[in-house]
Design brief:
The chain has a single domain, classed as Four Helix Bundle (Hemerythrin (Met), subunit A) (Up-down Bundle), CATH 1.20.120.450. 56% of the residues lie in helices and 4% in strands. It has six helices and two strands. Strand 1 and strand 2 form a beta hairpin. The protein is globular, with a radius of gyration of 16 Å.
């Protein structure tokens, strides 16, 4: 399994040595490699900010989930397989033609924010600090980190296909 801290290398590795023409190259309706990286960076940064905003709140209880949410979470986080194609939530949509240096920095900053949160809040807040995921319901810090590893691998496969088509 890929470690959370490996996300930047895993996602940016296939783009190493490739120019901005590859970074921005996409077809209509399909994200470019740069847009894929921006989406992942936004998702990581947004969830880190959400968790950080809850750190001073009193202990929370996980809300109940529907059976389908429980199953989806078990499949995705347990196996790493995304069984259905979902649209990204509006808050995680990438900008068109994202700046490469800014996007890579945002990705690394989000990873660093999660590492700080984990160091500061775990293990004390492992079972009483949650942030709602749009599909799976409430996730704890380590579950969010696992989600981001799986999510990154899902998009890494897309990115590799796009880069390989460009030569």
């Amino acid at each position: 399994m890929t470690a959370f801290t490996d996300i930047p290398d895993r996602l940016l590795g296939p783009l190493e040595g490739k120019g901005d023409d590859v970074w921005h190259n996409g077809r209509p309706g399909v994200w470019s490699p740069g847009e894929i990286v921006a989406h992942v960076a936004i998702a990581i940064g947004t969830s880190a900010e959400g968790i950080d905003s809850r750190r001073e709140k009193p202990p929370m209880q996980r809300r109940s989930v529907l059976p389908i949410q429980f199953i989806a979470k078990a499949i995705v986080l347990g196996t790493g397989w995304f069984p259905v194609r979902r649209k990204a939530p509006p808050t995680a949509l990438p900008p068109t033609r994202p700046d490469r240096a800014e996007t890579e920095a945002k990705l690394r900053s989000g990873i660093a924010a999660f590492e700080r949160l984990a160091a500061e809040l775990l293990p004390a807040r492992r079972r009483d600090l949650f942030l709602k995921h749009p599909v799976f319901g409430d996730l704890a810090i380590e579950e969010w980190m696992r989600f981001h590893v799986v999510h990154t691998e899902h998009h890494r496969r897309q990115l590799i296909r796009r880069v390989s088509r460009q030569g």
